[in-house]
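yo

u said u wanted the structure for the complex thing, so here. seqs first:
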Amino acid sequence: MALEQVKTELAGVESAEVVATNYGKKGFHLDVRVSPDQVVAAAEVMDRQGFFIEAVTGVDWFGEQAAIASEAKKKAEAAAKKAAEAAAAEGAEPPAPAPVAVPESGPDEMEVVYDFNHYQALCRVTVRTRVLRETPELPTISTVFPGANWHERETHDFFGIRFLGHPDLSPLLLPEDADFHPLLKDFKA
Amino acid sequence: MNHLASDMHKETFVLNMGPQHPATHGVLRVKLVLDGEYIVEAEPVLGYIHRMHEKMGENRTWAQFMPNTGRLDYLSALSYNHGYVAAVERAAGIEVPERAEVIRVMTVELNRISSHLLWFGAYLLDLGGFTPLLYAFDDREQILDLLESVTGSRLTYCYFRFGGLYNDIDDDFIAGLKGFVERLRSRLPMYHTLVTKNIILMKRLKDIGVVSADMCRRYGATGPVARGSGIDYDVRKNEPYSVYPEFDFDVPVYHEGDSMARYMVRMDEIEQSLRIIEQAIAKLPEGPIMAEKAPKIIKPAKGDYYHAVEAARGSFGVRLVSDGTNTPYRLKLRSPSFCNLSLFAEASQGMLVADAVAFMGSLDLVIPEIDR
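structre next:
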């Protein structure tokens, strides 16, 4: 079974977290998370197992870290308030409100998603990795799958993600002098 | 050999084919580096009708994106309607009534035939035969009339809805459809005697533009391009969706990998689509065409979802990322011609320019779908 085999092989890739997903609900079988420097190793596994590449694309998680931080802050405040109320109910002198620790929001990230599929076996694999929004760089897999060349160029057009070692990252779909990346969430036309 | 002759092969020149060249069907430009009449290097230049559909998707609700899906591949727009609604239905967990699914299959297959007929006519036009186009358009016209009567449009359909259809079919449509199936069946042998067995066509297509199965895999080619190279891959069979498992049809596969093989795959697919339509007419159940519980406002749960359908040109995939609101967070459209064209640069090396036209036509490119 291609699914079991590719699952074990992918688990061998450094930093890989392989999760089997509910195909009927999600539309793919394996959800693989790797660190950016391991995408080539993951692509090589897919190549050895006879998969073909469906697409490469990005997702801009702009504002995600701030949302996580504000969520955590709300929780901390609510907990502090609860503690104060509990103390007041016991008749004790309410303690000086403890300073709520405001968690620093980390830098935002961008996700790069690779979709693989198999001609014979019913097995869709999604490989994803995250790069920093400030420095969106990761190695190209066009050395493994030449078909990834255009997909990566398109992803560079839309998100400004730089694929290191790519033969030509000039705009593919955007005008040749385009210096903007329309799928960034903070892009304003 | 004197020094002029030995240097001859180093003298190359650049020729732009397109973006207004009649054989590139729409606005595709191919930058060719030629050595005499032979191609040293070919570089497709895309983006002339790029409209950024994916950004539009992030700025409107799930339902409001529907009309965009009819404008990607305007020759088989219903497949793209189907791919998008199926992806959103998967994400939002919407069940579709049986009758709606059968009508979806019926109309999608009809649209596939119309797309293949147009390809047939236009391809023969590229190769210098004018008459087949007139025959093909005559038949295609019937399909457009039929689909217009039920969808309300002739080309850029927006017929499906989340959970069903916009409009039910009536007896006139069924009668017209039966008549059309009969008509096209009687015309197909004529196509084959007129065109397929023509010696000039054979000489122009056989062994031209050979694409190996491994090349298909490395570039992610799907649809008739992959099936012409001996890969038995059809999303309708390999990853069954809708009610396709209930239909009896074959997937034509040819092993030669040349332009003739791709030609034959499409001609055979027309017959198979006719078979599917006939079965769909026979089994069309009574019932509603919209799911009763389909929500008016779609808010799929957080997460990402993928759904692929077999469009006329190959596997069309939709990757959705939802943040739980009524607008998509990210909407990726994986179009088949984009991947099928990407192998052109490698496969066309050393080819004659005239053969490259025959090869490119056999890929059946629709540029708005590549550029999106």
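The CA atoms of residues 65 and 107 of chain A lie 7 Å apart. Residues 64-89 of chain A form the longest helix (26 residues).
cya
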